[in-house]
Design brief:
Elements (H helix, E strand, L loop, with lengths): L2 H11 L3 H22 L4 E4 L2 E4 L1 H5 L4 H23 L6 H28 L8 H12 L7 H5 L8 H22 L1 H22 L14 H23 L5 H31 L4 H27 L3 H4 L5 H28 L8 H51 L8
Helix pairs in contact: 2-4, 2-14, 2-15, 4-8, 4-10, 4-12, 5-8, 5-14, 5-15, 8-9, 9-10, 10-12, 11-12, 14-15
Length: 415
C-alpha cells in the first residue's frame, strides 16, 4: 500500500478527539509539576469573578491514570477491529518492535542526558554501586521495583510511567488474544486483579509510597481502556451500517454532547474530592487515590467514548492542528518538563520565587515555553529519525531473511 492510501486508511480509522485527550492530560500533569516547583496560585478572574482552579491543579497527577487508560484503549483498538471487521493486527514480534520504536529513543536519550549532564556532575550518587543500580534498573525498566531507584532517583522522577507502560507491553499480546476469545472473563479478571491488589496492599502495608503506582494497581484501568475500544468499534460499526436519517444515529448526535458534559462534571467532582481528601496528609491522599481509581477510569472512558461520537463541529475542540501538534510532542513534553522546571528554578530564580507573584508567572511561562521547545527538538530531532532508522533495520532484516530462504535448496537428497 502506498503512503497516500495508507494515510487515507489511517484517517478513516483513527479517533481524532483522542489527540485532544492526550494533549490535555499531559498539559494538566505538566502544570501540576510546574506548580509544585513555582507555587503560582491557580486562580483566574473573568468578568469580575474569581475562578478557583487550585483543586484541579493539586490533583492533576490523576490524569496519569487517564494516560494509561488511553494507552489501553489505543493498544487494543486494532484487536477490537479485527474481531468485528477481520482486519489484520501486528504479530507479537512486530508489536514489541513498534513499542521499542515509539518509546526507547526518547527514553534512552533522557536517561543518558540527565545522567551525564545533571546527576553525575552534581554528585547525586553516594557511591558507585548506587549509581550502577539506578542506571541498570532504568535501562531495564525495572526501577519501580526498588524504593531507592523509584522514589529517590536523580534520573527524572516522571519516568516511572514509562516503566509501567513497558511492563504492561510485555504481557499485552497475550491479554489481547485472551480478550478476543473471552472478553468478559479476561477483562473482569483484570478489573478484579487491580481492585484486589489495592485492597490487599492497603490493609497490609503502612507506607504506600512505592506501591501506589505499581503495574498491578493499574490493571483495571488498562482493562477499562480495552473495554472502551470494544464499545467504540461495535457501536461505530452499527452506526455506520445505518442510513444517515436513522433514529439511532440522530439519537447519538443528541446524547453524545449530554454524555460528554455529564462525564466532565463527574470528572470535576472526583478531582475535587481527591483534592479535599489529600489535605489530610500523604497517607490519606494515596488511599483516596486508590479508592477513586476505578470510578475515575470509568468516568474518563465515558468521556472519551462520548467525545468520539460528538457532532463534527464539536469534535474540532479536541481534534484540531494545535491538539494534534501537542499530542505529537506530548511524550517528550511529559518526559522533560519536570527536569527543565527544576533546573530553571535552581539556576535562574532566587529563593523569593515562592513568595513573588510576578516571578511565579514568569517562571511558569518560561517552564512551559522551554519544555515545549525541548519536546519539539527531541521529537523531531531524535525520536522520529531514530524510529525511521529502526524501521529500516527491521525491513532490511526481513529482506535478508527472505533472501536466505530463497537461496536454500528447494529439496534435499536422501543418501
Amino acid at each position: 500500500m502506498n503512503h497516500q492510501a495508507d494515510n487515507q486508511t489511517r484517517g478513516k480509522t483513527e479517533i481524532g478527539v483522542l489527540y485532544g485527550f492526550r494533549a490535555l492530560m499531559v498539559l494538566f500533569v505538566c502544570n501540576y509539576h510546574i506548580w509544585q516547583l513555582g507555587w503560582l496560585g491557580q486562580y483566574a478572574t473573568l468578568f469580575g469573578q474569581t475562578l478557583d482552579f487550585d483543586f484541579w491543579t493539586r490533583s492533576s497527577y490523576l490524569f496519569v491514570d487517564g494516560m494509561l487508560l488511553l494507552s489501553g484503549f489505543l493498544l487494543y483498538l486494532p484487536y477490537a477491529r479485527q474481531t468485528v471487521q477481520n482486519t489484520p493486527v501486528p504479530g507479537v514480534r512486530r508489536f514489541y518492535w513498534n513499542r521499542l520504536e515509539r518509546i526507547v529513543p526518547s527514553y534512552l536519550f533522557s536517561v543518558l542526558a540527565v545522567l551525564l549532564l545533571v546527576a553525575l556532575p552534581s554528585g547525586a550518587y553516594r557511591d558507585a554501586s548506587t549509581r550502577n543500580l539506578d542506571v541498570l534498573t532504568h535501562l531495564t525498566f525495572t526501577f519501580t521495583f526498588f524504593r531507592e531507584t523509584y522514589l529517590y532517583t536523580p534520573l527524572n522522577g516522571v519516568l516511572w510511567t514509562v516503566a509501567i507502560e513497558m511492563q504492561f507491553y510485555l504481557i499485552f499480546p497475550w491479554l489481547a488474544k485472551a480478550t478476543q476469545k473471552k472478553p468478559v472473563l479476561t477483562l473482569c479478571t483484570l478489573v478484579a486483579a487491580g481492585i484486589a491488589f489495592r485492597l490487599i496492599v492497603s490493609r497490609s502495608v503502612t507506607d504506600l509510597a512505592i506501591w501506589v503506582n505499581q503495574l498491578p494497581a493499574f490493571l483495571d484501568v488498562y482493562a477499562l481502556g480495552m473495554l472502551a475500544a470494544i464499545i467504540y468499534v461495535r457501536l461505530s460499526a452499527r452506526l455506520t451500517a445505518l442510513p444517515k436519517t436513522s433514529g439511532l444515529r440522530r439519537l447519538t448526535v443528541w446524547i453524545s454532547p449530554l454524555g460528554f458534559a455529564l462525564a466532565c462534571w463527574a470528572l470535576t467532582t472526583l478531582v475535587r474530592l481527591q483534592s479535599a481528601n489529600g489535605l489530610a496528609g500523604q497517607d490519606a491522599l494515596r488511599l483516596s487515590q486508590w479508592a477513586l481509581r476505578l470510578p475515575l477510569a470509568i468516568t474518563m472512558a465515558a468521556a472519551m467514548l462520548a467525545a468520539a461520537f460528538l457532532p463534527r463541529f464539536l469534535q474540532k475542540l479536541l481534534d484540531n492542528r494545535l491538539m494534534r501538534f501537542l499530542a505529537t510532542i506530548s511524550f517528550n513534553l511529559y518526559i522533560w518538563h519536570q527536569v527543565i522546571g527544576a533546573r530553571l528554578a535552581a539556576n535562574l530564580f532566587p529563593a523569593t520565587l515562592h513568595s513573588d507573584l510576578q516571578l511565579q508567572r514568569i517562571y511558569t511561562l518560561l517552564c512551559f515555553a522551554v519544555s515545549i521547545l525541548a519536546a519539539m527538538a527531541v521529537t523531531y530531532g531524535i525520536e522520529k529519525p531514530a524510529a525511521r532508522l529502526m524501521e529500516k533495520i527491521r525491513i532490511r532484516f526481513l529482506q535478508n531473511k527472505e533472501r536466505k530462504n530463497d537461496e536454500r535448496p528447494s529439496g534435499t537428497e536422501t543418501v
